[in-house]
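[09:14] KT: can someone run the structure on this one? pasting the chain below
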Amino acid sequence: MIIFLYSIAAAVVLIYLPFLVVGYARARVGYDMSAPRAMFDKLPAYAQRATWAHQNSFEAFMIFAAAALMAYVTGVNSPLAIGAVIAFLVARLLYSIFYILNIPVLRSLMFAVGSLGYAVLIVLSIIQATS
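[09:31] RB: done, structure tokens below
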């Protein structure tokens, strides 16, 4: 199903959404091109959290991309798989929002929902490959 490939592309976009907040904060603080990483401590707390959300998005993306490719290659075709893809993408968007807004309980819940999304894809792929 082509939705798996499109979902990987959407997940790439979600990696960089928190970085837009970081860019805004850097512009307000005064961007130092000679030492961009050194300015992290000068950023307001919301921008520091946006940086962490951005970094975590890379970590989640790697597992999701592998799971989505597994589902694509094995020919998984079920409403559960589509639901898992949508749940992952929505959860990752909300994860970043809740991280930036400093709502840790909801952030953690979205992390769990996203993880469940790619776990479902992996299990469905293994079931499909072995049947």
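[09:33] KT: thanks! Residues 3-130 form a domain with the Four Helix Bundle (Hemerythrin (Met), subunit A) fold (CATH 1.20.120.550).
[09:34] RB: yep, looked fine to me
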